[in-house]
Design goal:
Layout (H helix, E strand, L loop, with lengths): L2 H13 L3 E4 L2 E4 H4 L4 H4 L4 H13 L6 E4 L3 H11 L2 H4 L7 E5 L2 H8 L4 E5 L3 E3 L4 E3 L1 H7 L4 E7 L2 E3 L3 E4 L2 H12 L1 E7 L11 E2 L8 E4 L5 H9 L3 E4 L1
Parallel strand pairs: 3-4, 3-8, 4-5, 8-11, 11-13, 13-14
Antiparallel strand pairs: 1-2, 6-7, 9-10, 10-12
Helix pairs in contact: 4-5, 5-7
Pfam family, one: DeoRC
Protein name: DeoR family transcriptional regulator of aga operon
Keywords: Transcription, Transcription regulation
């Protein structure tokens, strides 16, 4: 079955109210209410899709990358799965993705071209992210070429932040295990501060944002030491 046929079939079932369409798939109505609100009511989807495309372009075939949870990271997984060079048949996986997000792991698991590594840990039900000592143990035993870290806020002074301190700690560790750690943040997150800092600012070399960011915001991020990519 082609991807276009699958999408048409899912859209038809959604019109019959037999399932709810989600980014990258669908959920039967019997479980759709369990989806975290952040995945059902995604804000700024066009900006996040543009950011995801720019992030995917940074990933060479054969790389080992880290993806934290969140809607932007989910969009990056979608973008990676749309790349012909990654999805072409090959005897060995074309990409390795390490993630602490169980929804992203499920999304990638059916693609044999992508080796999917799940960190383990305790599920944070609000976000589908795995956190805790088991998560830390796995991340502490691996190395990554790239890590893409989503945020709830990014301030040029305090750096990236998250609403949840457990997720912030996992994100910081994932970034620390990467040769290059990239922040992915749509323009609505710039100049915002959330509760928990995601490690020291020096962990992150690059910010990918969208065209909604003002020139002043971009300059402040650049002055803070980030390489800024506008998608």
């Amino acid at each position: 079955m082609s991807p276009a046929t699958a999408r048409r079939d899912l859209d038809a079932l959604a019109r019959q109210q037999l399932l709810t369409r989600t980014r990258g798939g669908a959920v039967a109505h019997s479980v759709a209410y369990d989806l975290p609100i952040r995945y059902k009511n995604q804000q700024n989807p066009d900006a996040k899709a543009a950011i995801a495309h720019a992030a995917s372009a940074l990933v060479p075939r054969g790389a080992v990358i880290g993806l934290c949870g969140g809607t932007t990271s989910t969009a990056i997984a979608d973008a990676l799965m749309s790349r012909a060079d990654i999805m072409e048949p090959a005897p060995d996986p074309s990409l390795t993705v390490v993630t602490n997000a169980i929804n992203i792991a499920m999304q990638l698991a059916m693609r044999p071209q992508i080796k999917t590594v799940v960190t383990g840990g305790v599920v944070h039900a609000r976000s589908y992210e795995l956190v805790g000592a088991y998560t830390d143990a796995v991340l502490g035993s691996i190395t990554l070429d790239l890590a893409f870290i989503g945020v709830n806020g990014i301030d040029p002074v305090v750096g990236p932040t998250s609403h949840d301190e457990r997720e912030a700690a996992v994100n910081a560790l994932m970034a620390a295990r990467a040769t290059q750690a990239v922040l992915v943040a749509d323009s609505s997150k710039i100049d915002k501060r959330a509760f928990a800092a995601i490690g020291p600012r020096r962990l992150f070399s690059t910010v990918i944002t969208d065209a909604g960011a003002t020139q002043e915001q971009l300059e402040r991020l650049s002055d803070a030491g980030y390489d800024v990519i506008v998608a």
